[in-house]
Design a protein that fits this description.
Layout: E1 5-10, E2 13-18, H1 29-44, E3 50-55, H2 66-72, H3 76-95, E4 100-104, E5 107-108, H4 111-117, E6 121-125, E7 129-131, H5 145-153, H6 155-162, E8 167-169, H7 170-176, E9 181-183, H8 188-201, H9 204-216, H10 222-237, H11 240-256
Parallel strand pairs: 2-3, 3-4, 4-6, 5-7, 6-9
Antiparallel strand pairs: 1-2, 7-8
């Protein structure tokens, strides 16, 4: 049986691939369990410094497998349990100290929008389309869409997206702030790899901790968030990576001022 979530780890980069291409990578119960199991494993691994998420086939992710829901699920409780299972993986991903880049192409809709929003940097192929479309099948948003969307694009645009069948083009998604970059379709994964390489070749742990600070800020009061920032920069300062980089920066600054080489 083909794995619905593929994982490989090399040189600090974990590559996660949604792998139900025949269903546009839509989630069924088996894929939901695999998603959470794989993500929870990845975020605990010491040999992983960054994550690249993409989808096999012609699309990134079409959300939940509605056709299968119609034939195999008897009530809303089963749908809620499916969402809860996927949510555990989303929570692990967003709370982790691993920065995550998504390489999206084709359609990203429904719960696929939530999966995309759970990543930290999105590279989109030029032919990508991004939307909500829950109401088209009589459902409400899940998989972090209502938790993340308004913070990403503002309340008015979030409402516009979930209260219509609008599918944004890649360039529109860029203007809205849903994606960070738009590149040619053939270059999506390569560009995402380059983004991850910057994290891995730089101060990887500092990038990861900065991601955590941004992600946790909506849940903290202003004073608590400032305390968290102060604690984090103090902890960062004590790392060997920071000491090496600070010393190099100070030396370079001294040279520019005409100090002792």
């Amino acid at each position: 049986m083909t794995e619905s979530i593929l994982l490989s780890v090399e040189d600090g980069l974990a590559r996660l691939t949604l792998n139900r291409p025949e269903r546009l990578n839509a989630f069924d119960a088996s894929m939901a369990a695999a998603w959470t199991r794989v993500v929870q494993d990845v975020v605990r691994r010491d040999d992983v410094g960054a994550v690249l998420l993409t989808g096999a086939g012609t699309s990134f992710c079409a959300g939940g497998d509605v056709a299968q829901m119609a034939t195999t699920m008897s009530d809303g409780g089963e749908i809620a349990q499916l969402a809860t299972t996927i949510n555990r993986g989303i929570t692990a991903l967003t709370a982790s100290d691993k920065p995550v880049v998504a390489a999206i192409h084709g359609a990203t809709a429904g719960g696929g929008l939530g999966i995309m929003l759970a990543t930290d940097y999105v590279v989109a192929g030029r032919s990508s389309r991004v939307g909500s479309r829950y109401a088209n099948v009589g459902l409400t948003p899940d998989l972090s869409v209502t938790a993340h969307l308004a913070r990403a694009v503002g309340e008015r645009r979030a409402l516009q997206l979930v209260l219509s069948d609008l599918m944004l083009t890649a360039d529109e998604a860029l203007r809205w702030g849903l994606v960070a970059e738009v590149v040619d379709d053939d270059d999506v994964v390569t560009r995402a790899e380059q983004v991850a390489a910057v994290w891995l070749n730089g101060a990887t742990k500092a990038y990861g901790r900065a991601k955590q600070l941004i992600r946790q800020s909506p849940f903290n009061s202003f004073d608590v968030q400032l305390e968290e920032e102060a604690r984090a920069i103090g902890e960062s300062f004590d790392t060997s990576e920071a000491k090496r980089r600070i010393a190099a920066f100070a030396e370079a600054s001294s040279r520019k001022r005409g100090g002792t080489p």
